[in-house]
Design goal:
- The chain is an alpha/beta fold.
- The strands form three sheets. Strands 10, 11, 12, 13, 14, 15, 16, 17, 18, 19 and 20 form an eleven-stranded mixed beta sheet that branches. It has a seven-stranded mixed beta barrel with strand order 1-2-8-6-4-3-9. A two-stranded parallel ribbon has the order 5-7.
- The termini are far apart.
Length: 374
C-alpha cells in the first residue's frame, strides 16, 4: 500500500517543475521524459528494455490496480529510469498479484513520483517534445535551479548508444514447442520475453545472441532466419548491427525486424533516421498496410523513426524496397520490405504481451519467408 508522503519533484530541462510525493524508491534519477498512453500493461512497460534511460509518464490516471506478479515481466528487471503517475492504487486487486507496484519499484530502486497532473504534463511534452528530466525526492530535493542544472548536465537521447547496455551477456537457446521446424538467430538489442515465446509456439528454435555478435558467430548456428529485436537508444549509433544486417542480406538469409530492428533494416537498405518530437508509446496506435489497406491497432515504443513516405519505392544496395506500413496519425514510417531479398520489418510490437494482438500474424509471415527460402 502506497503511504509515502515524502515530497518529490519532476524537473524538466526547460525549467518546468511538477510537484508530488515519492512513489517507489526515494532519491534522484535522470532520463528522458516520455509519455505512454496504455491504460493496461504497466508491468510489461516497466520491464521493456526499450525504455532504458527513460522516465515514463503514464497518461492513464489510475495505475497499480492489478499490483505486480511474477509472470508478466518482459525481462529480468525494471528498465525505466523513473516513473510518473497521477493516482496510484492504494490496494491492488488481482488474484495473480504478489505485491504492490510501489513495492516492486522500491525493491528495484526505481525512483518515482505520484500525485502529478499527468494530463498537463502530457500536453506539455506533446507541445515541447520529449526532453531530459529528473525525479528528485527525499534528501535529493534541492533548489529548483540546482535540479534543473543536473538535468541539463545529463546526456540527451539523441546519439545514445544503449543496446549494448541491455543485451544478454551470453547466448542462450529457447527450444521450439513440439517439433523443431526452423532455427532462428535473434540479435538481442533489448529483446522482450514474449518474442521468443511467439516464435517457439510456431516450431522455431530461437538462439538469442548478444548485440556484439559477429557474422561468424551468427552463421555458426546455421540459422534458417535472422531476427532483429526491439531496443533502446538512437539507431544512428548501430554501426555494428547495421553492418551485420547488410551481411545477412548479402547472403539472402530471411530476415525479420521489429521496432529498433525496423530502423536497423531501414538503415541497412539506405534510409536515414531522425528523432521524433515525442514518439509513439502505447497500445492503441493505428498502422496501415500499404499493400492491403488493412488497419492494425498496435503496441509501440519508439522515439526515433525512419525517413520516407507511405508507399514509397526506393533503390537499395540489395535491390528495390518499399515503405510498406505507416501511421495515419502522422504518416510515420511503420514498416519496410525488400523486394529482391527476403527481408521485412515493422516499427511496432507484434508480440505485444499486454495486447493488442492484431499484428501477431507477422510471425507467421516470417515462417512463410523461411519456408520459401528452404
Amino acid at each position: 500500500m502506497t503511504s509515502s508522503r515524502t515530497p518529490a519533484a519532476l524537473v524538466l530541462e526547460d525549467g518546468r517543475v511538477f510537484r508530488g510525493t515519492a512513489y517507489g524508491a526515494e532519491g534522484r534519477t535522470l532520463g528522458e521524459a516520455v509519455f505512454c498512453t496504455g491504460m493496461t500493461g504497466y508491468q510489461e512497460t516497466l520491464t521493456d528494455p526499450s525504455y532504458h534511460r527513460q522516465i515514463v509518464v503514464q497518461t492513464a490516471p489510475q495505475i497499480g490496480n492489478t499490483g505486480w506478479n511474477d509472470e508478466d515481466d518482459e525481462s529480468a528487471r525494471i528498465w525505466v529510469s523513473g516513473y510518473v503517475v497521477r493516482d496510484p492504487a492504494r490496494t491492488p486487486s488481482n488474484w495473480r498479484a504478489t505485491r504492490t507496484l510501489d513495492d516492486a519499484l522500491a525493491e528495484q530502486g526505481v525512483v518515482g513520483i505520484s500525485g502529478v497532473d499527468t494530463r498537463t504534463l502530457t500536453r506539455h511534452l506533446r507541445e515541447q517534445g520529449a526532453m531530459r528530466s529528473g525525479v528528485f525526492s527525499g534528501d535529493a530535493l534541492r533548489a529548483d535551479d540546482e535540479m534543473v542544472g543536473e538535468v541539463l548536465a545529463s546526456p540527451p537521447m539523441k546519439g545514445a548508444d544503449l543496446a549494448g547496455e541491455v543485451t544478454t551477456a551470453e547466448p542462450y537457446v529457447v527450444p521450439a514447442v513440439g517439433e523443431r521446424r526452423f532455427r532462428v538467430a535473434a540479435l538481442d538489442l533489448g529483446i522482450k520475453s514474449n518474442t521468443p515465446r511467439q516464435m517457439t509456439a510456431r516450431g522455431i528454435e530461437v538462439h538469442v545472441l548478444p548485440s556484439s555478435s559477429s557474422l561468424d558467430q551468427l552463421l555458426e548456428i546455421e540459422p534458417d532466419g535472422v531476427f532483429l529485436s526491439n531496443g533502446p537508444g538512437d539507431p544512428a549509433t548501430t554501426e555494428h548491427a547495421t553492418a551485420l544486417t547488410r551481411a545477412v542480406l548479402e547472403r539472402r538469409v530471411p530476415l525479420f525486424g521489429i521496432c529498433f530492428g525496423n530502423q536497423i533494416l531501414g538503415r541497412a537498405l539506405g534510409l536515414g533516421t531522425y528523432k521524433m518530437r515525442y514518439g509513439h508509446r502505447g497500445i492503441n496506435i493505428p498502422v496501415i498496410d500499404v499493400a492491403t489497406g488493412r488497419v492494425a491497432i498496435t503496441a509501440q515504443n519508439h522515439g526515433f523513426a525512419l525517413e520516407g513516405e507511405p508507399g514509397q519505392r526506393f533503390d537499395s544496395p540489395f535491390g528495390a524496397a518499399t515503405i510498406s506500413h505507416y501511421c495515419p496519425n502522422d504518416d510515420t514510417v511503420e514498416g519496410v520490405r525488400a523486394e529482391d531479398v527476403p527481408a521485412f520489418s515493422v516499427q511496432y510490437h507484434p508480440e505485444a504481451a499486454a495486447g493488442p494482438h492484431d499484428a501477431a500474424p507477422l510471425f507467421d509471415e516470417f515462417v512463410s519467408l523461411m519456408e520459401t527460402a528452404k
